[in-house]
């Protein structure tokens, strides 16, 4: 890749603007992105850093009829999370979220992200590596004109998801090393929600050896 295009003020500003424009999308056009596009998203994920460069992410891509079948499981995951959300969300947002769990916003693609945890790496490092890849995937969606929402909800029913995907047959699953971390639902966006506000207070502590003059 030509590095000249990846430097300078223009590139910097565009990069930060890209990060600022990322937001979770929960309503999609059912049109399926091409396989070529989905493969570019995965290639972007593979560019992420990982502990000891183990690249311990594993992705399972679900589309078509299998996606339809997954909706039944998604509805079940709602039961595990609805009581918490009822207390935290205002009624309109609660209803939107409930509908989202039932339809996944018509997202035509669901990518399940797993971590392959092996004894040669610390558990949290393995997990963190996979989430770095998932963030790359989120950003790649943006530049492809796609939207996505990363979802922890499938963890409510992780054993059923493992079976649904056939992951349970894999030797690394049988040895207890494969763990579902999240799903990313994606497709062409059908809404443009406001950016969720960011908080900076209390998030950063600067440790300085001497006060600045
Ligand atoms: C690990 C993780 C799990 C999440 N799980 C869900 C989920 O189950 N359902 C959902 O609607 N959004 C989920 N989200 C999206 C967050 O709600 C969203 O990122 C957050 O509200 C900030 O909004 P933004 O992504 O638009 O900036 C999840 C995000 C992350 C990173």
**Which second-level CATH architecture applies?**
3-Layer(aba) Sandwich
Distance between the termini: 42 Å
How many domains comprise the coordinates? 1
Q: What does the average pLDDT come to? A: 94
Shape: globular
CATH fold assignment: NADH Oxidase
SS summary, helix count: 7
What is the CATH level 1 assignment? Alpha Beta
The chain-level structural class is: alpha+beta
- Low-confidence stretches are none
Summarize the structure.
This protein is α+β, with helices and mostly antiparallel strands. It has 7 helices and 5 strands, in the order αβαβααβαβααβ.
Which short descriptors sum up this protein?
single chain, 7 helices, alpha+beta, binds flavin mononucleotide, NADH Oxidase, 213 residues, five-stranded antiparallel beta sheet
Descriptive notes:
With 213 residues, the protein is α+β, with helices and mostly antiparallel strands. The protein has one domain (32-189): NADH Oxidase (3-Layer(aba) Sandwich). It contains seven helices and five strands; from the N terminus they run αβαβααβαβααβ. The protein has helices at 8-21, 35-46, 64-88, 91-103, 123-143, 158-165, 171-174; strands at 28-29, 57-62, 109-116, 147-151, 178-189. Strands 1, 2, 3, 4 and 5 form a five-stranded antiparallel sheet that branches. The chain starts with 7 loop residues before the first helix and ends in a 24-residue tail after the last strand. The model has no long low-confidence stretch (mean pLDDT 94). The structure holds flavin mononucleotide (FMN). Flavin mononucleotide binds at residues 23-24, 26, 100, 149-153, 182, 196.
């Amino acid at each position: 890749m030509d590095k000249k295009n990846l430097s300078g003020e223009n590139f910097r500003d565009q990069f930060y603007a890209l990060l600022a424009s990322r937001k979770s999308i929960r309503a999609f056009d059912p049109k399926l992105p091409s396989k070529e596009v989905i493969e570019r998203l995965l290639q972007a994920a593979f560019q992420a850093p990982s502990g000891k460069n183990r690249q311990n992410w594993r992705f399972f891509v679900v589309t078509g009829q299998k996606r339809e079948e997954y909706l039944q499981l998604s509805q079940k995951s709602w039961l595990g999370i609805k009581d918490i959300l009822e207390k935290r969300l205002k009624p309109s947002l609660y209803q939107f979220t409930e509908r989202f769990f039932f339809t996944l916003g018509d997202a035509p693609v669901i990518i399940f992200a797993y971590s392959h945890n092996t004894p040669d790496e610390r558990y949290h490092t393995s997990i963190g590596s996979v989430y770095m890849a998932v963030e790359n995937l989120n950003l790649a969606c943006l530049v492809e004109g796609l939207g996505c929402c990363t979802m922890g909800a499938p963890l409510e029913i992780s054993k059923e998801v493992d079976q649904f995907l056939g992951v349970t047959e894999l030797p690394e699953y049988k040895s207890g090393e494969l763990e579902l971390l999240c799903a990313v639902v994606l497709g062409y966006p059908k809404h443009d929600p406001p950016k969720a506000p960011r908080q900076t207070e209390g998030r950063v502590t600067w440790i300085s050896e001497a006060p600045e003059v």
